Amino acid sequence: MEEKNHTGTSEKLVQSAEKLFAGKGFYGTSIRDVAETLSIAKSSVLHHFASKEKLYAAVLQNIADEMIREIRAIRQGPEDEAGQMRSFVGLLCDNSRDRPDRDLIILRELLDNRARVDTARKWYFSPYLEELAGIVRSGQDKGRFKPIHPGLFILHLLGAHHYFTISLPTVRQLLPPVFFDRMIRDHRAELTRMVEDRLVIGPDGRDNP
Amino acid sequence: MEEKNHTGTSEKLVQSAEKLFAGKGFYGTSIRDVAETLSIAKSSVLHHFASKEKLYAAVLQNIADEMIREIRAIRQGPEDEAGQMRSFVGLLCDNSRDRPDRDLIILRELLDNRARVDTARKWYFSPYLEELAGIVRSGQDKGRFKPIHPGLFILHLLGAHHYFTISLPTVRQLLPPVFFDRMIRDHRAELTRMVEDRLVIGPDGRDNP
DNA sequence: TTGACAGCCTACCGATCGTTCGGTAGGTAT
DNA sequence: ATACCTACCGAACGATCGGTAGGCTGTCAA
Questions:
Q1: Is the C-beta of residue A53 closer than 7 Å to nucleic acid chain D?
Q2: Which CATH code, of 1.10.357.10, 1.10.3720.10, 3.40.50.2300, 3.60.130.10, is assigned to A56-198?
Q3: Are A179 and A118 in contact (CB under 8 A)?
Q4: What is the pLDDT of residue A1?
Q5: Which nucleotide minimizes the distance between its C1' and the CA of A45?
Q6: Domain boundaries, chain A
Q7: pLDDT (tens digit per residue) in A53-85
Q8: Nearest residue of A to residue B188 by CA position?
Q9: Rounded distance, CA A64 to CA A163, Å?
Q10: Cβ-based contacts with strand C at under 7 Å
Q11: A162-190 in b/e burial notation, b at 16+ Cβ within 10 A?
Q12: Assigned CATH for B59-198
């Protein structure tokens, strides 16, 4: 058997780089910064990843892979489409609490990818969006979801959530603590309501498109 | 009388810098880049703004001022609170179409401000959020709006819109044109529905909180 | 035992970064 | 004519950037 990478440094580099890129972006993060988190030389980083771009790509790929795995696990689960969407809202909130760096990286990539979208650059998160839109379409095909545009609904749902989580540290300073705590508590319920009101057709079959 | 800034270079610099910062962020934009857009030396940029940070601050302040002016104009208009919120949705969409750089800068600042929020750094857009939350609170005080958390609703509305507009260039490549066009058309209607469903209490007085 | 290679190092490269400096051109006020 | 101002410039500063070259060490299969 081939026994490459027996130190696990590459994986540690990806994890460190994720945190740094999330905090200061691609241009704001230097290879030296990444190397220092593992107390190794800068050129050692370039031994594992041939360039800064490749390291960044590895970070994106790693995040995208995890997200795809999570959403596929939900989609292949036993729930119906409405239940899957509710589980997805829970997944969103849990991930933002446990892995806040992910949200930052995704948003940064969304911003940066905009500028170079014409350079035929790979977009790591399109399979993720495809899976989500797939759930919506599936529910619509079975007559359980309202005929809203799948991609639009997903973008609005993701937008409401990510924008909220990104704003939290800033808004925390602007709001009295009591209001802030209530806002956090209400957030997940509000996302769920977004699913119920705008997507799921009630058990009585009524629909107001 | 003192005759400062008779060339208008400072204003031109702010406008150029806004575009560049929007495209590649603070770290991704150099003073040299800004100077070249006006065909002047980079030291001349530093004559108008003592540092890169100060130039960036001027860009943010300029955007924040315009946005505050716009939202105050709506708020002091003749409409009731529901009409003001509808006008605000229209303002959002129009601005994103006419001044797309603004959305990018605001989102980037939201991301970057997160990291240094503990350094007591000024947050230029809090008065803007305050004005918006004020409209919601005012409508609630008059019994016209549902008792949703004002800040939460505003963040969800802004998030849904900004995330959507930011994603447009990327999503355009992933979607068949016919779906893409429909998505654009439905976006404003969907935001308006967000206001109607989750905020405004219908004329019959019914309310489902 | 030996050779291949992974991992990590020091040393160094050219380029670019933000910033500082001294100086010039042209206008205005005294 | 003197003094002072804004606007702008080119040169240079030290620091840092991403990346390269080459050498040392330890592991492991042949």
A1: yes
A2: 1.10.357.10
A3: no
A4: 33
A5: C8
A6: 56-198
A7: 999 999 999 999 999 999 999 999 999 999 999
A8: A152
A9: 19
A10: A 4-7, 9-10, 35, 39-44, 47-48; B 1, 3, 29-33, 42-43, 46, 50-53
A11: bbbbbbbbbbeebbeeeebeebbebbeeb
A12: 1.10.357.10
* Helix ranges restricted to H, chain A: 9-28, 31-37, 42-48, 52-75, 81-98, 100-115, 126-141, 150-172, 177-198
Q: How far is B34 from B2, CA to CA, in rounded Å?
A: 27
Rounded to the nearest 10 degrees, the angle between the axes of helix B177-198 and helix B150-172 is: 180
Q: Which of B126, B160, B186 sits opposite A160 (nearest CB)?
A: B160
B170 vs A28, A113, A190: nearest CB? A113
Residue B5's pLDDT band (cuts 50, 70, 90): low
pTM of the entire predicted model? 0.91
Interatomic distance A47 CA / C4 C1' (Å):
17
Q: Confirm if B200 and B89 have CB atoms less than 8 A apart.
A: no
Q: Which tokens go with A116?
A: 């170079």
